[in-house]
Amino acid sequence: MRRQMLAVPMMLLLCLLCACGGKAQDPLQAPMDHRAALLARGGCAFTLEAQAQTGDRLWPLRLDCELDQDGNGSVTVLAPESIAGIQAVSREDGTRLEYQGVRLALGTLPGTELAPAGAPGRLVRAWSRDWIASAGQESQGLRVCYEDGPVTVLTWFDADNLPLRAELAVDGSLCFSAEIRNFTWKAGIDNETTEENLG
Q1: Is residue 13 part of a domain?
Q2: 156-166 as b/e, with b when 16 or more CB fall inside 10 Å?
Q3: What pLDDT shows up at residue 22?
Q4: What count of Cα atoms within 13 Å lies in the side-chain half-sphere of residue 143?
Q5: Does residue 9 sit within a domain?
Q6: With the CA atoms of 147, 152, 158 and 159 taken in that order, what torsion angle do they form, in degrees rounded to the nearest 10?
Q7: Which domain holds residue 122?
Q8: Is residue 199 a part of any domain in this protein?
Q9: Nearest to residue 148, comparing CAs of 176, 94, 112, 117?
Q10: Is residue 139 in a domain?
Q11: Distance CA 152, CA 50 (A)
């Protein structure tokens, strides 16, 4: 009788331990959760420490970005100092760089018509709608591969599904890479509306 009384709690404990182990979370769930948050919030803001290839020139850039879920918005150049303060108006149909009404041409990323300051918008568009080709854990975080035709965007996420680093390649050639800092969601409120309830 005493042995039976000990066996029941031990079996319950074993069941609880097995349940705690459970299945490992599907790595594709993290980019899907990030996508859902991006769409619900309506966009994000972040700073990039980036390198962009244009022609035979490699541009080191620091960019301050405020973009909606489609990658539209503004990108301000913080460095290099010689062009700091220039603001890019990022749109899916193209990017123009302006400084006090004067436009500046830095060239385009190889294989694209995308200016370097337009690359952050392309990253956001990948996060919000490109096909998620693969995802897997690496030492730097969860690595997610987004694909859209010849364009591949690799992004590494932390444990909170926030991006840490990203790379943009065209036809397998890397043309833009960046460390992502100070990532925040837009101040949208999930699942709420300001419309008056008439019902």
Answers
A1: no
A2: bbeeebbbebb
A3: 46
A4: 8
A5: no
A6: 20
A7: 26-183
A8: no
A9: 112
A10: yes
A11: 17
- Say how many C-beta atoms besides its own lie within 10 A of residue 38's C-beta: 21
| pTM: predicted TM-score of the whole model, two decimal places | 0.79
Q: How many beta carbons lie within 10 A of that of residue 185, not counting itself?
A: 15
Instruction: Could you list the beta-strand ranges (E) of 55-172.
Output: 57-68, 73-79, 87-91, 94-99, 102-103, 131-138, 141-148, 151-157, 163-170
User: What confidence score (pLDDT) does residue 108 get?
Assistant: 83
In whole angstroms, what is the distance from residue 91 CA to residue 143 CA?
27
Average pLDDT by consecutive 10-residue portion of the chain (199 residues)? 48 45 75 96 98 89 96 92 83 58 67 87 97 95 97 97 97 97 81 40
For residue 80, say if its preceding peptide bond is cis, omega within 30 degrees of 0.
yes
* Domain total of the chain: 1
* C-alpha span between 129 and 121 (Å, rounded): 12
